[in-house]
Amino acid sequence: SETNPLKRAAQKVTESVQGDSDGPAEGIPGKPGPESSPVAEPTAAREPLPPKPDQSGPDTLSPTGQLTGADQAQMAQAGALLTDAQGTRRYDTDHSLKAGPRGPVLLQDHHLREKVMHFDHERIPERVVHARGAAAHGVFMSYGTASTVTRAAFLAKDVETPVFVRFSTVLGSRGSSDTVRDTRGFATKFYTREGVFDLVGNNMPVFFIQDAIKFPDVIHAGKPHPDREIPQAQSAHDTFWDFVTLHTEATHHTLWNMSDRGIPRSYRTMEGFGVHTFRLVDAEGGSTLVKFHWKPKLGVHSLVWEEAQIINGVDPDFHRRDLADAIEAGAHPQWEFGIQTFPDTPDQTFEGIDLLDPTNIVPEELAPVQPIGLLTLDRNPSNYFAETEQVAFHVGHLVPGIDITDDPLLAGRLFSYLDTQITRLGGPNFPQLPINRPHAPVNDMLRDGMHQTAVHRGVAPYRPNSLDGGCPITAGADTAAYIETPVRVPEATRVREAPESFADHFSQPRRFWLSMSPVEREHIIGAYTFELGKCYEQAVKERALRVLANIDPVLCAQVAEGLGLPAPEPTVPLAEVEASPALSQVGQTWPTDGRIIGIVTGPDGDLDGVRAVREAVLRADMVPLVVASRGGTLNGSDGALTVQRTFATARSVEFDAVLLAGTPGLDGDANAARDAKAALVGVRRPEHDPRVGLLLTEAFRHGKAIGAWKGAEAVLEAAGVPVDAPGVIIGDSPTATLEQLTGLMGTHRVWERFTTTT
Ligand code: HDE
User: Please, what are the domains in the chain?
Assistant: First the structure.
């Protein structure tokens, strides 16, 4: 046959496509790779598998109302044969065109040029804030309970609406760690039949500033220092603390960041908030002011700071992985959507709280959160870039029945979100990207522009017109038009000023502090002490203490003690406020679905017991991870057990609880013989391995439930974990131990283990 490699490769293509003129070839089974390749092709070319259910693209309509399923298929690897961007088949994409094998690369290599050109432009600018995120598809099922206050069709009874939710950190770059201390974004795109509604919220109900004009400033202060570009994804540095102590309206949000809310255990265990007060409008035009809430079914749960720091190194993708794994495993995260409602009075206050001030909450005890629907995330994105990166949220994406208020922070956002997409997504046609396409038919008169992908018909994109049949015509209230609520605007003189009611910066933070349990207060004190301890500027630390003195003298004194500075006196009288118990994360019991239990066993552990607890953990919708001295399988009497983590790869931070497998009782000689045998193959028993000791002391320190069944006490003793401490269980049988352990996990942590001083 042909000896010239190029000709032979060309011949290979010709043979494989014979009889297949209008579709991809069946495959090239058994064909050797190109001559220059040292090994044969690893696999024979074949048709790609059809996408798994969770890999199919969003079920969207194009701007012209056509289903885009066909486009989606074309975007994947749609056939066996490689083509270039123009659809021309290529026989080699691993070698540049050269003048001889050792000669110069030729400028005429247009395949090289196209391939590298595309690669050069693969990145787009990351989001200026919220750059690091993870997302999922899901569905929102409305209870209909909001129908009395809003005409929004997707909030009517039993309406199902597809959604896409993106969670994020705020300060870090795209490649930064997940478990940094920061606010988290919680942005939801509802693809409703009346258009897209975006609720672009956070996991904290308040914001640092009251006026959008300060947003560039607070972000400049929070981002890394401009000279060295450090620190990454942190607020523990001088400029952040400089800003938040000079602009004391930031006090409340800063306190939330320093609380356990700043280090969530998982995206699945975060609350979400719309932050601003919105206005709902019913079918008769009646309006109600509301605050939006997302309540996680698994309860609010956080990491402890040391865990968060360890995870930054051990698994920087912790939250991203957790979300994707849970969805893939069928543990679909759920949140109840709720509203607090307030009468739409001209002063827009409730119980003396200014509803236009985004540094305020309204305690749930004063205005209960009323459930209006259920969000379930059930499908992972199939392509991070196309979906999670290119999704474009905007607070101005509203549907009939949902309107805005005059919160000055919201006003600035209404401008900013559209503006940013032009830089980020390269022009005004980002709504045409598959993830952003509305599911309602689009019939706009927007035309042309960068990256226009629609082929608009007609000649008269203006109205009224007499050339395109007079269409489109405008909708009215009876045909679901978006109609702005006719709110009275007060007669006023234009000023650059904040209202007097925005001036109280300390009573709401004091309420938050008073609502915390002793252990949560301890964590807050630790967080301030850590962050301010990382600052270099003495004046910044001192100013921060003056702010803390106005929240609470104990908080101030303890942080001052940690910094080695005197505690100042308050400069304003301490606010007389009641605690809001709903703000605390401690004291309730939650489902344990999706929680991870590490089951540690030695080379001669009770493997039948391990198998029994593994199965019981799975039945309880939790995740068992078997941890042993080495990888592979363990052979019990009932067949092999797969090892998921070894003493080298396991770290306590991955587990919500630890179970130690018992070892069947052996006498002293047998013990020695067993150890000798284990040492020969380089395998240590758990009680002899310092990594197991570390795992247990960390789990103990982090307030995690620890269980051991008969024969494993030695492992606890070797680690120095007291067997009679709270949350440490020595059970009679494997499953009885698991049962007790699960009971403890419902409260999230063994809170009694944390020392408190307040
Ligand atoms: Fe944002 N914010 N923001 N923000 N924000 C952005 O939009 C902005 C604010 C929030 O997953 C940007 O598409 C201004 C409050 C989330 O894609 C940008 C102000 C809240 C996300 C922007 C605020 C948020 C963003 C960056 C002060 C909670 C991520 C990229 C007026 C209620 C959305 C982008 C996603 C993203 C501007 C304040 C939440 C630049 C000017 C308050 C969850 O447009």
Answer: 1-48 (no CATH), 133-436 (2.40.180.10), 508-583 (1.20.1370.20), 596-753 (3.40.50.880)
